[in-house]
Amino acid sequence: MRHYFAGRMTEGKNLPHSSADVPFRSKELRKQSLIQHSGLVGVIDEGTKTIGFSIYTTPDFKEIAAHRVELSVITPQDGWYEQDPLEMMASINKCAEEAIKQLPDQGFSAADIATVGITNQRETTIVWDAVTGKPLYNALLWKDIRTSTTVEQIVAKVQDPNHFRSSTGLPISTYFSALKIRWLRDNVPEVRQAIRERRCKAGTVDSWIVWNLTNGALHITDVTNASRTLLMNLETQSWDPVLLKTFGIREEMLPSIHSCSEVFGKITSERSPLRGMTLSGIMGNQQASLLGQMCVKPGQTKNTYRSGCFLLCNTGDKPVFSRHGLLTTVAYKLGPQAPTIYAIEGAVSVAGHALSWLQTKVRILPDSKDAEKYAEVVPTSGDVYFVPAFTGLYAPYWRQNARGIIIGLTQFTRKNHIVRAALESICFQTRDILECMHQECGYEINKLHADGKLTTNNLLMQLQADTIGLPVFRSQLMDSTAFGAAMCAAQADGVNLCQFEPEKRYYENVHYDTFLATTTDVERKERYGKWKRAVERSLGWVIKQKKTKEHTEENYRMLSSLPASIFLISSFAMLVHSLSAAGQ
After folding, report:
1. Where are the domains of the chain?
2. Out of 2.40.30.20, 2.60.40.10, 3.30.420.40, 3.40.50.2300, which CATH number does the structure's domain 303-538 have?
3. Where are the alpha helices (DSSP H) in 61-147?
4. Helix, coil or strand: residue 312
5. Residues 6+ apart with CB under 8 A from 7
6. I want to staple 384 with a disulfide (CB 3.0 to 4.6 A). Which of 99, 270, 329, 408 is the partner?
7. Residue by residue, what is the 3-state secondary structure of 1-48?
8. Locate the Carbohydrate kinase FGGY N-terminal domain: which residues (predicted)?
9. pLDDT tens, position by position, 373-412
């Protein structure tokens, strides 16, 4: 990337299994920073595609048991993404049950689980009946764009999509929970009636999970999830009356806001294998990943590679408000009296999902897991660029009218080039965000921490290093989300399974594989310039057409569906009428 990224390492080959910045020089130092305890920590990890339950020992945070299941996504129409809230809870209970069954082989039992933490997909919104406890509608996922019209209505009202950025750190976008709650109120009769009768509760996925685990005794969320709703004031860390009025949402519907790490209460649900255990940690999944990657100093940056990509850069105890489309968010608050740490974030809507699309929709890939094998067949993408803007572009563009393109095709283009271009699109989108992060916060970014399911793809990691010109440090944990949530829950006051001192220590089990850039500045500049040109061509593709008196395609389809007999009879009648008129 540009010269402002300091500390660039010498170009060279990929160095697998190296360790990066692990300040524990000896076990003695580790003992000084951790309280020795034999309790276990359980973590509910509720993601977009999978739900899992992991169990960690303390104080070394070794995962000793885990079980994960796939979570189905419902797509009623293009751009709409839903999930069944009841399936979420059934999956959580199943995962917890299966993980606990693994404990005896490790010399433990369920009674050894001292506390439980929760980490979840953010922005995804659920509304439910406070009386019956049943959902009033499916969960609307974070990437759902059905609220586009609602966004337009709100923007027309306040005249600026960034009107609330100074108080929330967020633009008015389909991405955030406030728009989803408003859409549900406006479009679902059952929700409107429940609101009128004051029995409607709303929240992000963490709130739904806690409500169910505690039989409705707790309706809570944490600051990381609340900061993603477009309803929380970053300064007061409470629901903002102006925002509630703007979106027409009653505060009584919403959960109370807490820190990430404190004793919230006991799990009381008879359906849960976790009954009787303490709840002491809640974090949005990307903030948990930031903590799990030990990005605890200003300027430290991580990227989680999943169906989407999520880059967060720690900005310390003061929020940085973006001028280039990045989001200002709460990174973590490790206790009611602990300082609030902030981050700026850029989200890539389509990362691994592009590979799934190549597999399931256009059938270029037999399996998305084979992307590395297919892409390695060719040395380059053959000047093919893939902009996967299936539902628009997120940061730093925030263009809902963008749509996906594959450009640069020639008669020599093979499917391998397209697969490699899909991998490179993930890397280019990451660079887009890193460019902005430096401009916004001014901190030196001299490496990128990486985790997530897609990081098992070695070619992707090397392409990423080559695209940004920086070393990429891949966590050997692969997914730091549950690890971060475990630390958050374990260090809560009243639980005290560990003394977490992130600014002084790293944990000795945080190791990395290092990927170094093998490209030159000139090569990077040329390729990135072409990527920007491809992005420009994807913008403004969706144009809303005004209604006219002319027949639309739908009209023609309707007319063509009329029985042929009606058409013949009407035609004959018109002919008779015309002949009659001519005779007169």
Report:
1. 303-538
2. 3.30.420.40
3. 85-101
4. strand
5. 444, 446, 447
6. 408
7. CCCCCCCCCCCCCCECCCCCCCCCCCHHHHHHHCCCCCCEEEEEEECC
8. 41-292
9. 999 999 999 999 999 999 888 778 878 899 999 999 999 9
- d(CA 502, CA 488) in angstroms, rounded, equals 11
Is omega for the bond preceding 85 within 30 degrees of 0, making it cis? no
CA distance 59 to 37: 6
The sign of the dihedral angle between the CA atoms of 221, 224, 228, 234 is: positive
How many whole angstroms separate alpha carbon 447 and alpha carbon 381? Answer: 25
pLDDT tens readout for residues 447-502? 999 998 899 999 999 999 999 999 999 988 767 899 999 999 999 999 989 877 76
Beta-bridge partner residues of 143:
none
C-alpha 119/C-alpha 468 separation (Å) is 30
- Token digits of residue 57: 């020992």
Q: Are 105 and 29 in contact (CB under 8 A)?
A: no
Residue 556: CB partners within 8 Å, gap ≥ 6?
none
Q: Given CA atoms 242, 246, 249, 250 in this order, what sign does their dihedral have?
A: positive
Q: Tokens representing 422?
A: 């899909």
Q: Is 566 helix (H, G, I), strand (E, B) or coil?
A: helix
pLDDT at 400: 81
Place of tokens 């659920």: 126
Structure tokens that stand for 170 in this block: 């967020």
Measure the CA–CA gap between 172 and 322, rounded to whole angstroms.
14
Name every residue whose Cβ is closer than 8 Å to that of residue 82 and which is 6 or more positions away in sequence.
Answer: 73, 74, 75, 76, 138, 139, 140, 141, 144
pLDDT digits (tens, 9 = 90+) for 343-375: 999 888 899 999 999 999 999 999 999 999 999
Tokens, residue 226: 């609340």
What does the CA dihedral 492, 493, 498, 500 come to, rounded to 10 degrees? 70
